[in-house]
Design a protein that fits this description.
about 150 residues, alpha+beta, six-stranded mixed β-sheet, 3 helices, 8 strands, about 30% helix
């Protein structure tokens, strides 16, 4: 029974890390420092080459926070097992600042956007995010912003 309780406690702790990470998007980039391993990697449709290291991930989240106002980021569902977790999420924000993308910077449109997605996480032994893979509809986001592909 002790192993079951320990496993359940670890999974609840990982789900809390995931929830905190999702809720910080567009708001508090500094929250990431406590959640990611120094050598963490993160991938998404905007940066498929990935971001390597906690500092790069923080810079990405700082840009998102500067590019948006009234951000509401929340987890819809979270599941974890072992060293992995998955989450479905939704983010609603107003695009009020420059949005830096590999194909160029998108000037503020002052449009409200809603983005639905899913993220898969892998944790290290210390319980920090070691790898993150985000999946969302990039074309739909660009359409909401009024940007042609």
């Amino acid at each position: 029974m002790g192993d079951f309780v320990r496993m359940a406690t670890v999974e609840v702790a990982r789900e809390d890390v995931v929830r905190r990470q999702i809720e910080s998007v567009g708001r508090d980039a500094s929250a990431d420092d406590a959640l990611y391993a120094l050598d963490a990697v993160r991938y998404d449709p905007i940066t498929p080459q990935g971001m390597k290291g906690r500092d790069a991930i923080r810079k990405w989240h700082e840009m998102l926070a500067k590019a948006s106002t009234d951000a509401d980021s929340r987890a819809v569902s979270i599941i974890s097992k072992g060293d992995t977790a998955a989450a479905e999420w939704v983010i609603t924000a107003i695009h009020s600042g420059p949005f830096e993308m590999p194909m160029g910077t998108v000037a503020p449109t002052n449009r409200q956007v809603t983005l639905h997605g899913a993220t898969f996480y892998r944790f290290n032994r210390e319980g920090l995010i070691a790898e993150q893979r985000d999946y969302f509809d990039l074309a739909g986001l660009m359409q909401q912003l009024g940007v042609k592909p």
